[in-house]
Amino acid sequence: MHIAVSRMDFRIPQSHSLKDKRRVARSLTARIRAQFNVAVAEEPDDTLRQRLTLVVCCIGGNADYCQRMLDSVADFVAETRPDLELLGQSTEVLSGV
Q1: What crossing angle do the helices spanning 18-36 and 63-80 adopt, rounded to 10°?
Q2: What is the spatial distance between Cα 81 and Cα 84, in angstroms, rounded to a whole number?
Q3: Measured between alpha carbons, how far is 80 from 45 in angstroms, rounded to an integer?
Q4: pLDDT at 76 over 70
């Protein structure tokens, strides 16, 4: 069993309030969950209205599958939300769990 976790940091240039940020976060997490059937959570950082950090987790029998799934999530976000800037992404795969 393999567990892959990806942390994605985004900048939301059009966000003018925490309410705007929350709207983007809720919409994006729901779309990712529906499209890929992975776990998604927003990392809490309520002080910055233009920064969003999502943590995506995938579990599978093959480490390459898990890595490809997380790469597909990043590509999906880039294609469907061109208004978001991906500032950074870090991925870790835990094997033999």
Answers
A1: 130
A2: 6
A3: 23
A4: yes
Q: At 34, phi and psi to the nearest 5?
A: -65, -40
Assigned token pair, 59: 């579990």
Neighbouring C-beta atoms of residue 73, cutoff 10 Å: 21
**Residues ≥6 apart with Cβ < 8 Å to 12:** 20, 21, 24, 49, 50, 51, 52, 83, 84
Which residue type, as a one-letter code, is found at position 16?
A: H
Question: How far apart are alpha carbons 38 and 28 in whole angstroms?
Answer: 13
Those residues whose C-beta lies under 8 Å from the C-beta of residue 63, and which sit 6 or more positions away, are 2, 4, 93, 95
pTM above 0.90, yes or no: no
Distance from CA of residue 55 to its chain's centroid? 5
Per the structure block, which two tokens stand in for 66?
A: 């898990």
